[in-house]
């Protein structure tokens, strides 16, 4: 099977139904399964009562809802950055940051690392088609540098040692959508660091975030590209702001599951790619998807971001899975024989 379509009337948690069978769900990017946590549900209900509808105003509207600034302050402090700006999606966060980067370095070229998410592409610039080593060897001290915090959909770690060699004249754009909320996103660099992320993954809310220096965020918030955009839904922002204990609890559970995977899969089939301390694995094997499905686990398998590329089998360990689920998955993966 190269890909499949599954239509559902609810967001899957631990279980999903496919082809008449109940399977444990390893798809998506709902890393912390925050939507099933009672505290998050309580705070979201409170948020809906408080903010009865979405608020699609200009970002410079005379009426400002305080929850946006409060959540921005929380994220800036949480990740040790001077300032933050919310957007309505991770894609918009990336594109807004890109607009500001071009303004900061008007005579610079955009140098995009291999496999960077389209959120940091421009119409005229696409990711470097060679290796990471070749890309790093050609960075200039005036470049706007764009890169993902970790590989997606392919799971691979990104070595940020190159960032220490960047100059103050560089702008370093990093899409942290698949690290924020589940891993440390600190990066050492002299460059003007701007980090963007989707909050719909680990944080489970329809929003994006931009983290950067105070002057950069102030300039961003004065730019027509941001001013003309709609803010994120205030009810979900309220839930995120007031359910931080739930996020911490879900993250702790996820860390235990990842530790089990790390300990149990030290020797795994070479076609399965995973990182120590990270909740996702993937494979180019045409057999892994059906093998896991036959053994009670449903993963994603589709082409992304190029819809014409070969389908990728990608699986996510979420906080909804139990210790028994993880132990069962480890056993199944250890017995996988690629043919």
User: Major beta sheet, specifics?
Assistant: 6 strands, mixed
> CATH superfamily assignment of the largest domain?
Type I PLP-dependent aspartate aminotransferase-like (Major domain)
Number of domains: 2
As a percent range, the share of strand residues is 15-25%
Q: Quick one: CATH class of the largest domain?
A: Alpha Beta
Helical coverage, percent range = 25-40%
Mean pLDDT: 92
Strand element count: 13
Q: Low-confidence spans: pLDDT under 50, at least 5 residues? A: none
Using only C-alpha atoms, the radius of gyration works out to 20 Å
User: Within the largest sheet, what's the order of strands?
Assistant: 3-8-7-6-5-4
Order of H and E elements: EEHHEHEHEEEEHHHHEEHEEEH
Structural class: alpha/beta
Q: Remind me, CATH topology of the largest domain?
A: Aspartate Aminotransferase, domain 2
Description:
The protein is built from 10 helices and 13 strands. With 339 residues, the protein is α/β, with parallel strands linked by helices. Helix 4 links the parallel strand 4 and strand 5. Helix 1 (38-50) crosses helix 7 (234-242) and helix 8 packs parallel to helix 10 (323-334). The radius of gyration is 20 Å and the shape is globular. The mean pLDDT is 92.
Write the layout of secondary structure elements.
Blueprint: E1 15-18, E2 21-25, H1 38-50, H2 66-78, E3 83-87, H3 90-104, E4 110-112, H4 132-137, E5 144-148, E6 171-175, E7 192-198, E8 208-212, H5 214-220, H6 224-227, H7 234-242, H8 244-264, E9 272-274, E10 280-283, H9 288-294, E11 297-298, E12 300-302, E13 312-316, H10 323-334
Parallel strand pairs: 2-11, 4-5, 5-6, 6-7
Antiparallel strand pairs: 1-2, 3-8, 7-8, 9-10, 10-13, 12-13
């Amino acid at each position: 099977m190269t890909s499949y379509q599954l239509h559902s009337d609810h967001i899957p948690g631990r279980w999903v139904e496919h082809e008449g069978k109940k399977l444990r769900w390893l798809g998506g990017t709902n890393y912390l399964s925050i939507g099933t946590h009672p505290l998050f549900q309580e705070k979201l209900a409170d948020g809906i009562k408080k903010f009865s509808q979405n608020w699609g105003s200009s970002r410079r509207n005379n009426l400002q809802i305080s929850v946006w600034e409060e959540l921005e302050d929380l994220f800036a402090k949480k990740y040790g950055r001077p300032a933050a700006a919310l957007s309505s999606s991770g894609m918009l966060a990336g594109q807004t940051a890109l607009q500001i980067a071009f303004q900061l370095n008007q005579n610079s070229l955009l140098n995009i690392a291999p496999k960077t998410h389209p959120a940091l592409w421009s119409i005229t610039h696409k990711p470097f088609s060679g290796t990471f080593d070749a890309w790093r060897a050609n960075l200039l001290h005036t470049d706007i540098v764009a890169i993902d915090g970790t590989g997606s959909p392919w799971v691979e770690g990104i070595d940020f040692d190159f960032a220490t060699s960047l100059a103050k004249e560089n702008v370093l754009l990093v899409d942290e959508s698949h690290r924020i909320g589940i891993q440390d996103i600190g990066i050492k660099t002299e460059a003007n660091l701007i980090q963007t992320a989707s909050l719909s993954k680990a944080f489970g809310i329809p929003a994006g975030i931009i983290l950067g220096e105070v002057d950069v965020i102030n300039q961003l918030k004065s730019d027509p590209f941001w001013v003309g955009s709609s803010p994120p839904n205030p009810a979900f922002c309220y839930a995120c702001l007031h359910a931080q204990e739930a996020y911490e609890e879900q993250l702790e559970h996820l860390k235990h599951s990842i530790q089990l995977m790390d300990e149990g899969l030290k020797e795994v089939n070479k076609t399965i790619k995973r990182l120590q301390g990270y909740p996702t694995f993937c494979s180019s094997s045409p057999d892994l998807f059906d093998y896991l499905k036959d053994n009670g686990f449903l993963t994603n398998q589709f082409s992304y971001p190029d819809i014409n590329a070969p389908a990728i089998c990608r699986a996510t360990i979420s906080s909804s899975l139990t210790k028994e689920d993880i132990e069962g998955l480890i056993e199944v993966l250890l017995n996988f024989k690629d043919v």
